[in-house]
Amino acid sequence: MNAAAAPAADQAVLAVRGLRKRYGGAEVVAGVDFSVQAGECFGLLGPNGAGKTTTLRLALGQTAPDAGEIRLLGEPVPARAREARLRVGVVPQFDNLDPDFTVAENLLVYGRYFGMRHAEIQARIPALMEFAGLAGRENARLNELSGGMKRRLTLVRALVHDPDVVFMDEPTTGLDPQARHMIWERLKRLKNEGKTLVLTTHFMEEAERLCTRLAIMDRGRIIAEGAPRALIAAHIEPQVVEVHGPGVEEWSQGARAHAARVELAGETAFCYVADETALLESLRARPQLVYLHRPANLEDLFLKLTGRDMRD
Amino acid sequence: MNLVQSLLVLPRLSLRFVHVWRRNLLVWRKLAIPSVLGNLADPMIGLFGLGYGLGAMLPEVAGGPYIGFLAAGMVVSSTMYAASFESMYSAFSRLQHQKTWEAILNAPLTVDDVVLGEMVWAASKATLSGTAILLVASLLGVVGSPLALAALPVILLMGLAFAAIGLIWTAMAPSYDFFMYYFTLVMTPMTFLSGVFFPIEQLPEVLRWLAQALPLYHGVALVRPLFAGELPELWWLHLAVPLGYAVLGSSCAGADAPAPAQ
To answer: Any chain A CB within 8 A of the CB of B15?
Structure first.
């Protein structure tokens, strides 16, 4: 942390220091520090069970921390979480729209929770429907909507009171590519409008596209933090060659001479290199091996930092 | 320990509970007719079937025809059932299946707001049930005195007490099956111990003492004399016990309510 960052932390939209939370025997959040500045899109990445969702819940004041300090929009949390949440929109991991209400009724009822008057909400509905790509479907019942439409409705429900910050817990999990791209488009629009976005995800592509800055969490701690490209550059070689086919294991022994790092995962060798020329040369002599050459991405970094073991 | 600590802290109340109440009202309005019929049919059948059928074979009970005696019990016990169903099955569905509570807690509302909103909602629905039966009983001439109007706040209090108890079970329940224990092991015996169908003087002494701890007994003890045009004896005690259940119960439910799934 440099000296210039210190005054900025005071104006941070969200500032978290020394955060800890224990459920039963396990420390789910084990000393987390970060801050999010206005206008940023901040991503919390991590495998399942890394503590991302708990960190969000703590930041929103929905559960009390065992230790640590949280300030959200200048309010101490959880003490004044209610006041802070007046200016925050939340997109939950699983849709919790009201199935008994129509599309418009969902927005009307939700707006009232923020103390908005009926006419005030009604006036915002056309713009929200346009944003969600649901114009003309105000009176549709929820079971007439596709998964992607429900997700977009959940997103605009979180915007009904025009919040300064939007928290999103895995905003595109379970969506097909078209629906996912549509959500990404909307989130970029929000970014351009100057909203601060805080999201958790385990889609590396999503984080790379949207986030100005991200923190990788594992086992309740932040293990790396920075802008996506800068993080990749700092931790990992720029080129990746994935190789599989008969004899890959034996080939990978020799390949270590040409690569900074070779990882054998099942039947595939992942070779991380600064200059791929020599490695590709050695592959030309082995036509039975299939390979894919690509630039390093966030997923490589993620796997390097959190390992390839399954998490449940 | 956590529960005890939470009980020592006053709930953080705000008027925002009204929004939770209003949300439930809006849903109910869409399904009002089947819901009202369902809520009323059962106690009405009980009142007519037992009141006229069984009543025809009985001598006077507590100084009047049996149906007059039974009407007071039916008003209070149907209030109990309506509040319990709403605060258990319906609230559980909003908590666990529809995740309505989770959505509300993302807005500037707290668990205490949601619990209070659900409690007042279940009590409102129960009051509607109890009042409708009171109305039918009056039209039949079973209720003799205008003092019966004083039963209305008692009905509301019964609704609040049983909604609060129901919400504790909802907060602890792992599944719908859990409510069966409460219905069969708590409510059914309570109905027989509280003087709904027969005077509790018929019970052994130890059970009469047990009845004193039950909110239903106190509700019946208030409403029955009012229907007959008399002021209930020990009315302050009969009010205090259900009130205690309502206040302590809502505190417990708020402290117990599970955090939305992480």
So the answer is: no
DSSP sequence for B220-232:
HHHHHHHHTT-PP
Which among B19, B103, B262 has the least Cβ separation from residue A96? Answer: B103
Residue in chain B lying closest to A99 (CA): B98
A218 CA to chain B: closest CA distance, Å?
A: 16
Backbone torsions φ then ψ of A77, nearest 5 degrees: -120, 140
* Distance between B100 CA and the closest CA of chain A, angstroms: 6
Q: Domain range spanning residue B243?
A: 18-256
Angle between helices A118-132 and A177-192 (to 10 degrees): 120
**Residue B13: inside a domain:** no
What is the per-residue pLDDT across B168-185, written as a single tens digit (0 to 9) for each?
Answer: 999 999 999 999 999 999
Q: Indicate the pLDDT class of residue A175, thresholds 50, 70 and 90.
A: confident
> Can you give the pLDDT at residue A227?
93
Q: Look up residue A94 and give its two tokens.
A: 């699983």
- Tell me whether residue B197 is in a domain: yes
Binned at pLDDT 50, 70 and 90, residue B10 comes out as: low
Cβ contacts of A180 within 8 Å, gap of 6 or more:
A172, A206
- From residue B241, alpha-carbon distances to B79, B88, B115, B255 in Å are 17, 22, 21, 21
- Report the CATH number of the A237-295 domain: 3.30.70
Work out how many domains chain B is built from and give that number.
Answer: 1
Query: Domain spans of chain A?
Result: 237-295
In this prediction the ipTM stands at: 0.86
* Rounded distance between C-alpha atoms, residue A3 and residue B119, angstroms: 52
Q: How far is A177 from chain B (nearest CA, A)?
A: 26
Cβ of A112 within 8 Å of Cβ of B22? The answer is: yes
**pLDDT, tens digit (0-9, with 9 covering 90-100), for A146-173:** 999 999 999 999 999 999 999 999 998 8
According to DSSP, the β-strands at A14-23 and A67-72 are antiparallel
* Burial class of B221 by CB neighbour count within 10 A (0 to 12, 13 to 18, 19+): buried
The token pair that represents B101 in the structure block: 């509570």
Tell me if B11 is assigned to some domain.
Answer: no
